[in-house]
Amino acid sequence: MTEPVADRAMSQTVRAQLALRDMILSGRLRASERISELQAVEITGVSRTPVRLALVRLEDEGLLQAIPSGGFMVKAFSERDILDSIELRGTLEGLAARFAAERGVSARSLEPLKECLGEIDRLVRQDPVSEEAFSSYVTLNARFHALLTELSGSAPVIRQIDRVAALPFASPSGFVMAQSALPEAHQILLIAQDHHRIVVDAIENREGGRAEAVMREHARLAARNLRLALRNRGHLDLLPALALLSSTTAN
Amino acid sequence: MTEPVADRAMSQTVRAQLALRDMILSGRLRASERISELQAVEITGVSRTPVRLALVRLEDEGLLQAIPSGGFMVKAFSERDILDSIELRGTLEGLAARFAAERGVSARSLEPLKECLGEIDRLVRQDPVSEEAFSSYVTLNARFHALLTELSGSAPVIRQIDRVAALPFASPSGFVMAQSALPEAHQILLIAQDHHRIVVDAIENREGGRAEAVMREHARLAARNLRLALRNRGHLDLLPALALLSSTTAN
DNA sequence: TTCCGCATTTCAGTATACAGATTGAACCCA
DNA sequence: TGGGTTCAATCTGTATACTGAAATGCGGAA
User: Fold this and answer.
1) Which of A165, B4, B151, B152 could form a Cys-Cys staple with A171, CB 3.0–4.6 A?
2) pTM of the model
3) CA-to-CA distance for B113 and A9, rounded, in angstroms?
4) Taking CA A82 as the corner, what is the angle to CA A80 and CA A84, rounded to the nearest 5 degrees?
5) What domains sit in chain A, N to C, each tagged with a CATH number?
6) In chain B, positions 183-242, which contact chain A (CB-CB < 8 Å)?
7) Are A95 and A212 in contact (CB under 8 A)?
8) Would an 8 Å CB–CB cutoff place A91 in contact with chain B?
9) Which residues in chain A have Cβ-Cβ distances shorter than 8 Å to B80?
10) What pLDDT was estimated at residue B184?
11) Cβ <8 Å between B156 and A84
């Protein structure tokens, strides 16, 4: 069902990594639960060597935590951790936007960004936004953020943003689907798109401070979505990533 | 000579990781040079399994780069990359300081920071700062930055800062020793310590914006040191980390 | 002399076997 | 009955052998 398509022509290590990540994010491996290599071998069906590699990769992806005496456990996140990760992403994306603005970008490289902007416009124009429009939004939004990050032209910055956004709840589109069930849905979408537009404008006019500030505020929309979703329980099934939330705040 | 002390009672993986890192940072493995597993086995004297682990760890530490066809190469950094990494660290430390200021910290937890401040004061008081005073400064400065990062109280933020500072040229004390050979040495030290003092003051008074701005500017001192050191060649031997600089700008 | 193809060699990916360490339980003694 | 000690089972860390793929070099043909 959730089986990745390209199951063949993939290294065992990657296969194991995907399988384990899926198990963690879907909550089949509970937070704070220890996960032994042999367990992982049973789950993934590959031998210990690639499983070990996959576990190490998942550790520095942030989903696992090394146990001092050896082995790994599924990392637990507090609501605060998630909010901080979002603020962290906003700060880094703000830096990327500022770099782009201050250093200047060619009109040529702004084109795909503006094109993306136009496509999102067409989506948010409909008033009751359809479910599949939200899906398209998730894709386009991810593209927009990726393009913007690239625009910084700074490999170290791009690298760090990618690492933060690897955590599903910190990624730019982490809480968009949760938002779809909220009454404020359309309004938030319009505001988000306005942020997108302002950032591009700021970069074009080389207004670094403005670009940075807007990107920071933009990330805080995700925090708002999260809080709203947590208050309106019942839509949490839209957020598989929240299986990582430690039990003190959830459940 | 540069042999780590605790050579026994260390896992083979860690031993290999340290040995390889040392080889890279000291420039014995040149940037952009491919490094095969078997080569690494010969260098470190351990078997392929722990070597493989060490290579993966060094990859996400940022010192190595995976080659699509398999294997790794020593990552090359441009001067721009290094400057961006410093700005990146400043931005993240700024976030940490802002969190500390906005959320408030107990007087109790500020004590070690102030103690550190006092010790640095005693060092910078001497006018021609001795060579070993610079060494002490490096240690104390690292402690100050670590304490400040901790003060954010945010695990995700601490984690990211640690990852950025893992690159030797992005670490808070990366260019202090280079600075020691400059005529402006004492002056820069005084300014840096003033930044330290202001940040603590800002945190105490819950001035988030001020704390953030000062930490950002503080990081830019490292950028200044780097540029000065690059102009005044001849002291580059104080910066083993610069072996990673790609040949377009150095050599 | 140059280009193409084949063979050889080297290397990464994987599986597995072995050893040391740690954890958990059970039994014995106080 | 409780605590301590010992033994057993399990797990991680490590080494190594095997396999498939990729790169390189050599030889032949055009």
Assistant:
1) A165
2) 0.91
3) 54
4) 70
5) 3-74 (1.10.10.10), 79-244 (1.20.120.530)
6) none
7) yes
8) yes
9) 154
10) 83
11) yes
